[in-house]
Design goal:
D-Maltodextrin-Binding Protein, domain 2; alpha+beta; Dipeptide-binding Protein, domain 3; 3 domains; 20 strands; 26% helix; three-stranded antiparallel sheet; 15 helices; Dipeptide-binding Protein, domain 1
């Protein structure tokens, strides 16, 4: 017993310095000064006048919304007391109304109370016909926003809206102060320089000085609702330079504490991180590098009808066994290691996140299986009958034209995939097209990704926000590009299923979040198991922070700085 008491006493003594540090540093301003660098410099602090990430994220230190999205993509109440649902009475049964309740006692940084009237004004500001609001889509379908009382905000939609968490939700749709912006409606919006450069907010920091396209100085908001936060007393937010220099300023020189959007060679970034001064962090949203397997025949001999329904089905890529074998042959982990580093994760899903919507039903693809792929094709009778090394299906050799945009990482991926497919008896001809042409959408060009004059093509796509309803509707039968639509349409691989279309309709009429998650996972699995699409890499955003910085929970669903009030300096 004596020994145990002595050990407990020693532990308590060892913890005493940490407790003393916490008392001093985990209090408002206790961590001193914070240096942040975004190599693209903000030009305004009004996110309604710019759709740029740099403006939205710098403004998020000041301006806040009713709810935010954390590092897992989960919606969390922010200025509101809770997330409204049908079950708690916050969403009407007919899905045309959502009611939010503000927390009591929240004030603007000037000490005046935040009220529902500020929310109503924000809607009026962004939807003014002469205002040119960059975030107007967040208010799509909103018929009116009403202040029921000082703390109650009622958002009314013109039609049933199963996912009503758009207006005044997330860093791109914050509430602005009616008193400050009252004379800034419509065409006058960009003229209100003082308000646009120094908005009054409810967030953890206040703008002290703003030099557009250069630097912003912030200080702690003395009226912030949490009396212990923010832990930093002041912030310098520097803009300009390039991604490599920004990474070096954190990982090598220590000049800055946090650097954003480090789109550089993963090998170089790893060498910088190896010096031990900082840590590379990655946040993953919904971006997925994938292969689309053309379900229509792209044979050039078909002329203008190639890759259309009139051309008929693809000679062999509509057979899911072949697509499955092509997927099994790919080493996704190696693709990540070579091309993406910390900015990538192997994936088997076209809808990899948020967590609510992410399926685990297809995870077998995470392990390359060349032998299994060969066995699968052999068992299906898809074999090489003439000894040239290429298998045939119903007399057609398994030869594919595999195209993508011109990009060093993508060409490396193509070379590896070609090699792996050769090992299972499938020949690939590689083609790369200038990105401005490939993604250009010119209906007269034969080289656009929508026209898809190839068997396989590769690129990345994603969706904004956290609700996948509109994104998963991309694979509706009527979304297939064709000459009748000027080759516009989102169903690039020409997948078509009545059962899938039925799930799209069900999603549009479903409000319950858990059921929406189930439907989205079913849609993902139906697509993946058709092997009309083969996901490769879940791509993420990459930043870096000094090892002396704590509390980082990087999010790709909201501002990276969404929880900056919780950041702190770790003692040496």
């Amino acid at each position: 017993m004596t020994r145990k008491v002595l050990l407990l006493g020693a532990a308590a003594l060892a913890m005493a310095p940490m407790a003393a540090w916490a008392d001093g540093h985990l209090s408002r301003g206790g961590s001193g000064h914070l240096n942040i660098i975004y190599w693209q410099a903000p030009s305004t602090l009004n996110p309604y006048l710019s759709g740029g990430t740099k403006e939205v994220e710098s403004a998020s230190l000041v301006l806040e919304s009713l709810a935010r999205f954390d590092d897992t993509g989960t919606m969390v109440p922010w200025l509101a007391t809770e997330i409204p649902t049908v079950e708690n009475g916050g969403i009407s049964e007919d899905l045309t109304q959502i009611t939010w309740t503000l927390q009591e006692g929240i004030t603007w940084s000037d000490g005046t109370p935040l009220t529902a009237a500020d929310a109503v004004f924000t809607w009026e500001y962004c939807t003014h016909p002469e205002g040119g609001c960059a975030q107007a889509s967040y208010f799509d379908g909103v018929e009116s926003i009403v202040a029921v009382d000082d703390l109650t905000i009622q958002v009314n939609f013109a039609n049933p809206t199963p996912f009503p968490y758009t207006a005044l939700v997330g860093s791109e749709s914050p509430i602005i102060q009616a008193a400050q912006f009252a004379d800034c409606l419509g065409a006058r919006a960009p003229e209100c320089t003082e308000a646009n450069f120094g908005p009054i907010g409810t967030g953890p920091f206040v703008v002290e000085d703003f030099r557009p396209n250069d630097v912003i100085e912030f200080v702690a908001n003395e009226n912030f609702r949490n009396p212990d936060q923010p832990y930093f007393a002041s912030v310098t937010f520097k803009g300009g330079g390039d991604a490599t220099a920004a990474a070096r300023s954190v990982l090598e020189t220590g000049e800055f504490d946090y650097a954003w959007n480090l789109q550089i060679d993963p090998t170089i970034l790893a060498q910088m991180e190896a010096q031990g001064n900082g840590t590379v962090v990655t946040a993953f949203g919904t971006s997925v590098e994938r292969l689309h397997m053309n379900q229509f025949d792209p044979n050039p001999e078909l002329g203008d009808i190639r890759s259309t329904a009139e051309a008929g089905p693809h000679p062999f890529l509509t057979n899911p066994v072949i697509g499955q074998a092509m997927s099994m042959a790919i080493d996704r982990a190696l693709l990540v290691e070579i091309g993406y580093g910390a900015g990538g994760q192997p994936t088997c899903n076209v809808l990899p996140a948020p967590e609510l919507y992410a399926s685990t039903a297809n995870d077998g693809c995470l392990v390359q299986d060349i032998a299994g792929a060969n066995a699968l094709l052999d068992e299906a009778g898809i074999v090489d009958t003439d000894g040239d090394g290429i298998r045939e299906y119903e007399g057609t050799p398994l030869r594919v034209l595999y195209q993508t945009s011109t990009n060093a990482v993508r060409q490396d991926t193509q070379a590896l995939v070609k090699q792996w497919w050769a090992e299972i008896g499938i020949d690939a001809e590689l083609r790369n097209i200038d990105a401005s042409v490939f993604f250009g959408g010119d209906p007269a060009s034969p080289d656009t990704f929508q026209k898809f004059y190839a068997d396989v093509e590769m690129y990345t796509n994603n969706f904004a926000g956290v609700d996948p309803q509109a994104y998963m509707a991309n694979w509706a039968c009527d979304e297939i590009p064709s000459p009748a639509t000027q080759w516009q349409g989102s169903n690039i691989q020409r997948f078509c299923s009545e059962d899938y279309d039925a799930l799209i309709e069900e999603m549009a009429a479903t409000a319950d979040l858990e059921r929406r998650g189930e439907i989205a996972r079913m849609q993902n699995d139906m697509l993946i198991q058709s092997y009309s699409i083969i996901p490769l890499v879940h791509r993420g955003g990459v930043s870096a922070h000094a090892n002396s910085l704590g509390g980082i929970r990087m999010s790709d669903w909201d501002s990276e700085l969404w929880n900056i009030a919780e950041w702190y300096r770790i003692p040496e």
